[in-house]
Amino acid sequence: MFYRPEDGHGLPHNPFNAIVSPRPIGWISTRAADGSDNLAPYSFFNAIAYTPPQVMFSSTSAKPDRGDTKDSVANIRETEVFCCNIVGHAQRHAMNDSSGPWDRGVDEFDHAGIARAECDTIPCARVADAPAALECRLTQIVQLPGKTNFLVLGEVTGIHIREDCLRDGRFDVTLFEPLARLGYRDYTRVTDVFELSRPGE
């Protein structure tokens, strides 16, 4: 089949998210100017540069109590920092609990029973037992086409790695099985890996 997005796909459910998958999940923690914490998962998330290390996530909807966006972007506008927490399979239910459209006063750490720790390089909370966490300073927020689409870019200023996720000096994803988003309500986890050498290596 072929379709133009502006004409519609004609299927029972939009296939776009299923086509671009799997997508890593950035469990984004932020702190508002008033000191309140927020935690929410985003599957439009990835690393985008090595030197300096940089990441991105995008928010594609809004809440009535936040105007044109959601809590994460609103908080980052105020404080210009955020933390990208990596989600292991064991944290799937807590991650899902934190994804609800809660009022801005709801602390998802408390709501979902998630232990928090303070970041080292930025004034923000992180998920204490995340396999890894990337502390970030905002570099820019880009308004994308679409009323509520915002791309958030940040430079990584500190990296936490859980000790039990290291094997022989490597961050071994099979030890915590990172969660990834597919289409619809589907998720997957990484349970095995294989290696390919680039031509000329």
UniProtKB/TrEMBL annotation:
- Molecular function terms in GO for this entry? FMN binding; oxidoreductase activity, acting on the CH-NH group of donors, NAD or NADP as acceptor
Look up the coiled coil feature and give its residue ranges.
none
Top-level taxon of the source organism: Bacteria
Start and end residues of each Flavin reductase like domain: 20-173
- Which InterPro entries does the record match to this protein? Flavin_Rdtase-like_dom (IPR002563), Split_barrel_FMN-bd (IPR012349)
What is this protein called in UniProt? Flavin reductase (DIM6/NTAB) family NADH-FMN oxidoreductase RutF
Q: Which organism is it from?
A: Palleronia aestuarii
